[in-house]
Amino acid sequence: MSDLPGVKPIASATHDEPDWTDQVTDLIVDTVDRIHDAATGPLVSAAKGAIYGTVAGLVGSVVLVLGTILTIRSLDLLPGNIWLPYSVLGVVLTALGLVLWGKRTDPNESS
Q1: pLDDT at residue 10, as a whole number
Q2: What is the Cα–Cα distance from 25 to 45, expressed in whole angstroms?
Q3: What are the backbone angles phi and psi of residue 104, rounded to the nearest 5°?
Q4: CB neighbours of residue 39 within 10 Å
Q5: Using CA of residue 15, residue 20, residue 21, residue 24, what is the dihedral sign?
Q6: What is the pLDDT of residue 99?
Q7: Are 75 and 91 contacting, i.e. CB atoms less than 8 angstroms apart?
Q8: Residues 75, 88 contacting (CB under 8 angstroms)
Q9: In whole angstroms, what is the distance from residue 77 CA to residue 81 CA?
Q10: 23-33 exposure pattern, b = at least 16 Cβ within 10 A, e = fewer
């Protein structure tokens, strides 16, 4: 292109001088990234926690129901009547309830 008459070649920046447009662009991108991370970081963490909590709750309830069924079925294999497994499970759950009842706190009591 420098062959055309009357056209001067554009002076290019030397390698020693940094290009200010690149610096401004990097500054803008870094600023936007910091603002984006500050604004969406806690929201993403909260959303992940809600999803993991929901999945854990659903899986936990299924495991609890299947565990109860498995316990009743396995206790049913013991010799005797069907009331025996229900009585054993009732005693275990009552003991667990009493332990949890003993650990309760009064909401009106200040620590």
Answers
A1: 58
A2: 29
A3: -70, 160
A4: 9
A5: positive
A6: 96
A7: no
A8: yes
A9: 10
A10: eeeeeeeeeee
Structure tokens at 53: 């909590």
Q: Which amino acid is at 30?
A: D
Question: Given this model, what pLDDT does residue 105 score?
Answer: 86
Could you read off the pLDDT of 49-81 as tens digits, one per residue? 999 999 999 999 999 999 988 988 887 887 778
Three-class HEC string of the chain: CCCCCCCCCCCCCCCCCCCHHHHHHHHHHHHHHHHHHHHHHHHHHHHHHHHHHHHHHHHHHHHHHHHHHHHHHHHHCCCCCCHHHHHHHHHHHHHHHHHHHHCCCCCCCCC
Determine if the pTM surpasses 0.70. Answer: no
Chain segment 3-20, per-residue pLDDT in tens: 556 665 555 555 556 688
Where do we find the tokens 């993991």? Answer: 52
Say whether pLDDT at 47 is over 80.
Answer: yes
To which residue do tokens 């275990």 refer?
Answer: 92
Q: With beta carbons less than 8 A apart as the criterion, state whether 109 and 92 touch.
A: no
